[in-house]
Amino acid sequence: MRKEIAFCFLGMVAMVSLGLFIKIDDVQAGTLTEASTTPASSYGGITNSYSVSWKVASSTEVGAQVRLIFPSSFALSGATATSSISLSSTLAAATIATSTVSGSEITLWFADGAIAVAADTIHVSVIPNILNPYAGGSFTIGIETRTLANELSDDASSTAFSIIPAAVPVIYSDTKAPVSTIV
Predict the structure, then answer these.
(1) Could you tell me how far CA 126 lies from the centroid of its own chain?
(2) Beta-carbon-side half-sphere exposure of residue 141 (alpha carbons within 13 Å)
(3) What local confidence, expressed as pLDDT, does residue 169 receive?
(4) 155 near 145, Cβ under 8 Å?
(5) Of 49, 39, 51, 61, which Cα lies nearest the Cα of 120?
(6) ∠ Cα 23 62 95 (to 5°)
């Protein structure tokens, strides 16, 4: 009986010792909730502005990033940055220091002194000059919050919104060559 207790004790000591050498990553990305996207116009082929809002799952630190990821069919090359994008929150002071546009992604950086706390609702209003896709359809926008070290903090997709396909003018052409009546 004593041998069995000794072996159990040694086994537990070995497992605990081994556990000290295994890195446990206790930081998990949270899920943003109540994420929504509102286009100013729902028509395809229109240069448009967007508003995006979400509820923060975990606190977002000063200087952290927010990435808004549009589907590839949206043209963001004309989207303007910082001065025309405003951000408000319900529980804390949150302002944008700068922003960049790259491909289908808009990255916003929180200004010094800005912080979003858990359960805070953030609203990014009037992201201008985004060209809606001509084909239309149902779309969502990916939203990510990232730490200063560029590690994923929270993420979600917005609720779906629809774009009505652009009207394409029908070009008529003759099916027969014209016949001259001049002799």
Answers:
(1) 15
(2) 29
(3) 57
(4) yes
(5) 61
(6) 145
